[in-house]
TrEMBL record:
PANTHER family: BLR2520 PROTEIN. It comes from the Bacteria. This is Glyoxalase. The lineage of its organism: Bacteria, Bacillati, Actinomycetota, Actinomycetes, Streptosporangiales. InterPro entries: Glyas_Bleomycin-R_OHBP_Dase.
Amino acid sequence: MTSIDSVTLEVADPTAANHFYATAFGLHTQVRVRAAEAPTTGFRGFTLSLTVSQPANVNALIDAALDAGATPLKPVTKSLWGCGGVVQAPDGTIWKVATSAKKDTAPATRRIDDIVLLLGVTDVAASKRFYTGRGLAVAKSFGRMYVEFAAGSSPVKLALFRRRALAKDVGVSPDGTGSHRLVICSSAGPFTDPDGFTWKAAPA
């Protein structure tokens, strides 16, 4: 099964970015950074989501991110589907922390259950065909709105969302130009997808 080994974020200050991700989320190997000054404005067309087991963990991770220098985009709120909040890291990457649980069942921790890379695409059906043609297996599919691929033992899950819907979900304008500032490391690479997202081959 095709899997994602890690994602690399292109940032202006790798030292500061590494410090932020280690301090805020405890991420070291799944999310990597490298120096780049590629021009970009507005929404970069993707988000990263952290799913956790309960609302207290959402608050713990969001608070840690804010303390480490993140900017709030959506406060932690409860809804019919669970609980979640959205922040923007100092390097510009948008992160959502969420749970489907509505009540806490244990003391708060910053334990992350899943990391999900959500790509905002122009045509979900076309991108779905593109990715299944490269060995990714569909786990969930909701027409032309959303597709989630099976992760297996992969440390990062992949999902596709319509670009405008993804931007609305995290509270930003869908407008944006320039580099995505993202490289996806996978056994499926190297290639560039229909929306310009770059994949590279994972080390053997």
